[in-house]
Amino acid sequence: MITLNKIRQVLNDPRRESVEELAQEAARVTRQQFGRAIGLYSPLYLSNFCSSHCTYCGFHSHNKIERIKLTPEQYSKEMQVIHNQGIRNILMLTGESYKHTPLEYLKEAARIAGEYFQGIALEVHPMQVEEYKELFAAGVDGITVYQETYDRTRYAQVHLSGYKKDYDFRRDTPRRAAEAGMRQISIGILLGLTENLDQDLLDLYLHLREMEKSYPGVEYALSFPRLRTIKNEEFARCDINDITFTKILALTRVLFPRVGINLSTREEPQLRDHLLEVAITRMSAGSNTSVGGYALLDEDKQDPQFDIKDERSVAEIIALLKNRNFDPVFTDWRRIANVPSV
Fold it and tell me: Rounded distance, CA 99 to CA 97, Å?
């Protein structure tokens, strides 16, 4: 049983041996459930137009950046670059603007992505069940949506306006995606956004249990991105150090042996290399968090959603994994046409 006291006990235990014991148990469970396979994916930002004001995001509606929305020709070029690096799983992202990236735009992007990738996931504004069904029919396999924080008070403080201000609609998004037939759903919290980390973790775990019980056929994954700078500007409310971060991933693995755990390029290379042995099952590689960052814009003209820490190429990550006796997985299924649920 998952309890707040159990989470607090793990997070607050200062003993080094407690971290090592937890990490070793997490590693044992991970190897038992997933072997030494590590899935690889890359993010592709389609648009940075946004109607929401989220204080920690580089794309928020009040930020004075150049707004870009890629055309099909432009994002095809970006996809080609990512495909040529060996990536076959893509996560396509946008700012939260129903006006600039409507359903038809996303469906067309999914159809074109199907020419390059076997796995297609979206991290975009929340939608209704019928819209997710249309995306599924267009080839989308997965949805990523983070609640950011389950602390309602803190949520209201950092989501000042726009659709994302609606806490309940966002929290219900994984259910709507599952109802539409999505095969993969990733949820998570943004570490550093609230001081009530223990309660945030508990609420995330309970949300996952709720989803597993209601939709057991979905493949779930969790992510724990740490709040990062945007062009070197700090946004974190509280520091989540590497030891605490390791504890979170290890505890998650022990509590949820079969759930996927993602690790992004927000983290430093040395830590990412270490966590390979602990709990993660998927990691991004060769990432760029700007619209048009792979093929269209020079670095000095890019406006990232956040600053990345691991700038190694896909080839370097593949070499690392093989040298550490891991199996880099580019795709684990053959693409077939998605059949809409009835």
Answer: 5
Read off the pLDDT of each residue in 193-217 and give the average, rounded to a whole number: 96
What span, in angstroms and rounded, lies between the C-alpha atoms of 286 and 82?
Answer: 8
- E strand spans, 162-279: 184-188, 219-223, 260-263
CA pair distance 228, 243, nearest whole angstrom: 17
Give the separation between CA 64 and CA 49, rounded to whole angstroms. Answer: 11
Asked if 315 and 85 count as a contact pair (C-beta separation under 8 A), the reply is yes
CA–CA distance from 190 to each of 16, 138, 154, 292 (Å)? 25, 30, 12, 25
State the average pLDDT over residues 127-147. Answer: 97
* CA distance linking residue 340 with residue 130, whole number of Å: 10
Is the pLDDT at 316 greater than 80? The verdict is yes
How much is the average pLDDT of 286-293? 85
Given a contact cutoff of 8 angstroms between Cβ atoms, the answer to whether 120 and 92 are in contact is yes
According to CATH, the topology of domain 4-326 is: TIM Barrel (3.20.20)
Amino acid at 269: P
